[in-house]
Design a protein that fits this description.
By secondary structure, this protein is mainly α. The protein has 5 helices and no strands.
Amino acid sequence: METNKETIDALNTLLQGEYMGVESFNLFISKIEDNRLKERLKSIQDKHRENIKILSNYILDLGGKPDEKIGIKGKMGEVMLNMELGSEIDSSEIIKKAIEGEIKGIGKTEEILRGRLDRKSKDVAEKIMDRDRKAIDELKKLL
């Protein structure tokens, strides 16, 4: 049972990161004026929302409870990001910040994958990480 709790805790950490991704993209989208670029960012944000659904359902299937709060660490990150972006920032800087956030998310996922997860949980985490890597590729094309 302890292994299951460890797995659920690790997956909830990953889930919180996906929620932070959605919140970050809310901020990025609010700072962009170009409608085409907004739509591209919304599309990437939707992938984070899909990741949330995948993780939440899997955690429930394991008998756990998805943690739907980003917590104090997430809130502090959001405040810091808002300060870094400021009131006047160009689109390329926003995209660079989005890429930076995706890279941090992948790093956290890799850290989780080094932990003691069962094969199915690793598969779920790897699927999320692959989607985040594709998001980076999409963002780089916008630069």
